[in-house]
Amino acid sequence: MFKTICIKPNEGAFPTDIGLLAENLLYYEKVILIASTDTFSILLNKCGVDTLLELLKKGNLKLLIRENLLGTMSQTLSNGNIINDVALISSEKITTENVVFNGLFNATGRRGYSKRTTNKLLDFIEPVKYDTGICDFVRNDLDDETYVKQTIIDTLQFYNPKLILSADDIHYEKIKTDKGFFFGTNLNYAEINKLIPNNPDGKKINSTGLILNIQETRGDMHLAAALGSEISTTPIQIQLMKLKFKDIYQKSQQSSGNLYQFNDFILDKGHAIREVINSGEKSIKDFLIILEKAEKFKNWLSKVEDDQNIIKEYHKAVTQETWVDKLPGKSFRWAFFTGAGLVLDLAGAGGAGTAIGVGLSAGDTFLLDKVAKGWKPSVFVDNDLKKLIEKKK
């Protein structure tokens, strides 16, 4: 626990910021950041090259560049139906060197400086790609009527908890065509969108968006599993990732009792590190002093499964008598994954072949194989629960 976490930004719903990076660095031995062109502009402006290099050289931070992207190709037919398909998008321009250079050049407008700085950073940045099979994994997810219906239910409740549907209320079928597939459903998107807060264009919920949620959830899990890391991503992806693992356990017939669960842990006496760094009141360079102090105590976190109070003791030890100790209060939440029953089944009853035999897809089997080998898909939940906690008091 608390070894490695992957931050997978979504510039619309989960943007990269230096404060988020700092909070993850405080708790994890290594933070892997999936970086885009925008990321490097932010890192340069808010962090500076020297501080960035220091984090990279120490091994606290690792930067990865996705050299291909998961996308949904959509085409509207003359009858108004939308045909979709999943695709991997790549380009000669989507290379590690180009992404880094363009990000730096966008921030500075200085071509020569950006080129020299790119050369300094490239030794510490690696490419990462989705496997070609990821598209079939997503298509398999969309073939699973029970899973898709539950993702619809969870998505609607995520945006409006009062939107309560049952699986029986939803008609869904994936109709294949020579150009892709049609996401067939009885959902009245226009009426649903009227009930979604903060939805000015009235298009937050639609068939393409529902597909994208399923697709991004699969992509996030696949990356985290391949990297052997926990993950910090959008709240909706975290919700659907929990759902996917519940689905896997139910299919494997190993979900009785408490063999499968995500145990939430709330640190309710944290500090608003992200907010003060993002405001500019403190810099990431100021934070390095806290990070150096934290290194002396991080071995505590390896024992968190035995005693979650260690998280509180760790936070207190590394922040007391520092500028962090004077910050406003903030709550943090982790969802720790446990699933020992399934791991034992895979290890002792035929391995991955058993999983396939109970109707799991190749993508789900890939995830279970990683779990059996020690991967724990726990998550760091990016939201401040202080107001929620205060309401419960």
Report on this model:
- The protein is α/β, with parallel strands linked by helices and 393 residues long.
- The protein has one domain.
- It is 48% helix and 19% strand.
- The protein contains 17 helices and 12 strands.
- It has a 5-stranded parallel sheet, with helices on both faces. A 4-stranded antiparallel sheet has the order 4-5-8-7.
- The longest helix has 21 residues, at 207-227.
- The two termini are 30 Å apart.
Enumerate how many helices there are, as a single number. Answer: 17
Structural class: alpha/beta
Oligomer: single chain
| Coarse shape | globular
| Regions with little confidence, pLDDT below 50 for 5+ residues | 384-393
Largest sheet: 5 strands, parallel
Tally of DSSP β-strands: 12
Average pLDDT reading: 84
Please report the distance between the alpha carbons of the first and last residues.
Answer: 30 Å
Spatial strand order of the main sheet: 6-3-2-1-9
**Helix-strand sequence:** EHEHHEEEHHEHHEEHHEHEHHHEHHHEH
The portion of residues assigned to helices is 40-55%
Query: What fraction strand?
Result: 15-25%
User: How big is the Rg?
Assistant: 22 Å
Question: In the residues, how many domains can be counted?
Answer: 1
